[in-house]
Amino acid sequence: MSSHREAPEISKDPAADNTDTYAFRSPDKPGMVTMIANFNPLEDPAGGPTFFEFGDDVRYRINIDNDGDGRADIVYEFKFRTEVPNAETFLYNTGPITSLDDENYNRPQTYDVILKRKGKNPKVIAEDLRVPPCNVGPRSTPDYGDLANSAIRKVGDVRFFAGQRLDPFYIDLGAVFDLAVLRPFQNLHLFPTPAEDGVNALRKFSVHTIAVQVPISLLTRDRRRPTDPMNPKAVIGVWVSAHRQKGSFREGHIVTNSGPWTQVSRLGNPLFNELLVPMSRKDEWNALKPYEDDDFAQYVAQPELAKLLPVLYPNVFPNLAGLTADRADLLAILLTGIPKGIIPGFQNYTGPTQADMLRLNVAIPPSDSPDRNGILGGDLAGFPNGRRVFDDVATIEIRAIAGLTYPLVEPSYTPDPAAEIVTDGSFTPGTVTYLDKFPYCDHPVSGYDVLPLSERP
Amino acid sequence: MSHWSRRDVLRASAGAAAVAVPIAALSGGVAGASSGPSAESANGPEAGGLEQLDAEASGPVMFMVRDAASGTVTILHGEHQVVVKDRKLVAQVMRAAKVNGRVR
Q1: Inter-chain CB proximity A75 and B45 less than 8 Å
Q2: CB atoms B45 and A258 under 8 Å
Q3: Which phi and psi (to 5°) does residue A208 adopt?
Q4: Which of A27, A68, A257, B28 has its CA 20 to 30 Å from the CA of residue A411?
């Protein structure tokens, strides 16, 4: 998955497990950038009676670097509080929940937003914003769409939403982690099986989303809205992190936390920790800041998957098998950004500091006809120029690792034909749905309505 | 536990913080005996708050002695951390941790 359960330690801490990070110019409000941080992997919609929620003991941060040093210049920090109004019932809700302050809602969460700008004191910019309940079912959460939409709040020029959403990411997990089965080459695998359509293993599952929509001029280095994509100040780096306090002390059911907030999860580019970092270093990577990533560049320059593909698929990737040079294409895409002169009309280079961040050139306007393959599909507004909710990042990264992007830095290299058609295979039109406006991630399926896993179409 | 009090620990940690902050700032925040939050705060707003440990503040105090021989104790309070090198304090802690003559 992009970063669902991608490392041993964080897989045991779902409330702090960042599953995906998105950053894109808002198609319906092109003067704004939307940044989305998703948590709580693989929420089964029927997961009651204690439905999913954010952690009161976790600090969630959306980090923006606007000068290319891999350090945050702007941080939006989210701090949650949970109440239990009725202490005498086991119920999540004691009747239908028809508004965010409905007395029937017995596990209400609120949150504050703290804005931290480099060189300035932290400032609370929003207080007591409400989180909608999970989508329990038609009796408990009727008119869920209206209920959830009422949790979208505008404070100044900035919009916020925090709550349960349908997971916008899609991937064929069962295949990818069964020794890198890729569609449509199952029959060519070292351990062949008949070719079949891909399966979106995340279909109908939910996540907990934190979304913020900010004017471009609040994010750039010079506080302006750039129009020239070649302007270095047009590129921002975005990543998400989750933090817990250093000390934890248990006495019976009481847990006391103390000390500074220490990072337990982070995510910039999708699949970085999951697909590139070896198992023995995944927890370490989660605790580091992006500016410390140069020690991990070796795994990008010589990705393990690029060595495995020719072995797992004999005779399918012969050119990739002969590609032994460091992958300057992947180093640029994932760790420094793509310099100008490589792709006509585009750059998202942030300088020599190697740091895993989504790099968004905010001077590139939203696409009128978006391609889910992003820049590989000729759409400069898509991944790896930031990341939109519908971008097929699994396919894009698999193709890139398979050698499709290497000619960007070495024109004499000819990618294997397979690199152009290999796909994760999980995208099926209509099976993953989105909203056309903030927060762009669709409403979650209700617990009552969800089908057993084996019967989900 | 009778040889020292919570106030003693707070006083020691507050004193260490007052000295350690400029050292951490000068050294880029990697000094051995320094305050944790100040080490991060030099790196920008992703770090924790900038307030000094308030010796009179309420709330629990936690500490950890990873290596008693070094005389170093890490003290957590509120959203802050200080690392104190105080052999006497650590020796008192280790004496207090002994049960039937052994550290359990």
Answers
A1: yes
A2: no
A3: -105, 120
A4: A68
